[in-house]
Amino acid sequence: MLESNPPLLPHYKALLSHTADEVAALEYCNVWKGGAVMEECQLPLIDLDGLKCLDATERLACSTAICRASSEWGFFQVVNHGISSELLGKMRGEQIKLFQAPFEMKQTCGLLNNSYRWGTPTATLPTQFSWSEAFHIPLTKISEEACYGEFGSLRGVLKEFAEAMAKLARLLAGVLTENLGNRKEVIEDICDESTCFLRLNRYPACPISPEIFGLVPHTDSDFLTILYQDQVGGLQLMKDSKWVAVKPNQDALIVNIGDLFQAWSNDVYKSVEHKVMANTKRERYSIAYFLCPSYDSLIGSCREPSVYRKFTFGEYRKKVQEDVKRDGYKVGLPRFLL
User: What general EC class does the enzyme of this chain belong to (predicted)?
Assistant: First the structure.
């Protein structure tokens, strides 16, 4: 049988040949924000049934909890989110089948709009390398039958899953915008199917060390992200200047604020740095939905004085890509401070 795993180990070992001086320079630039995890955290847990409650006090309490978590943590969990456990289970099964395909097929056959990625091609040091593989799929391609090849059963499930995640993302974005005195449709007006993505992730077991990144430290370059993950664990976030491990909750989806919501809210909501650590014995699966605007959408502040200059999403992505190509890491919002 052909190997399904990407050749992560040879590429990682090649990066180990870099000198100690280069590693020291990277640490000096404060790009490598590693260190031992101090504790395991339980993210704020929010029951979204509160948003449907007839009692206005209950609805307000639920909305307030969402906004408080977005300001204090930049992350929270939601239950009673409207996506059935049956659909989530079907999606996970299809995802596993997809990633079990031979590596050569995933890499060359154009699956899912040729969206397959593995490792980190731009990495010049081990601390910039992600021990993972993924399909990063534009929502506009999900309905196209030609994208699936022999994985035809994935199409219907992925379409239903994407629609459910999009509905949830719009609901949460509406709560967050209303909290700042704006119409709940403000973010929805500039985010539609043509601009959003799904990312199917697999983190193979890593035989080297549990200190290897499954996904390097980063913030998300969107408005918000919704994550469906398994129970293996590995997700960590920066809280009070230290890394904390997120305890998996099989009944919850994880939501995190992206850079665009932080800029638009004038730093009221926080886009928090996070990472995934590899597991030496178990593979890990997750699926992320990214709520993004069109590339020409202008991102300004909802209140004055503004912390950031206005920029388009296209300009932001271009600057991120330039920084990663040149320096090996993302700078992000600090590039746009006034």
Answer: oxidoreductase
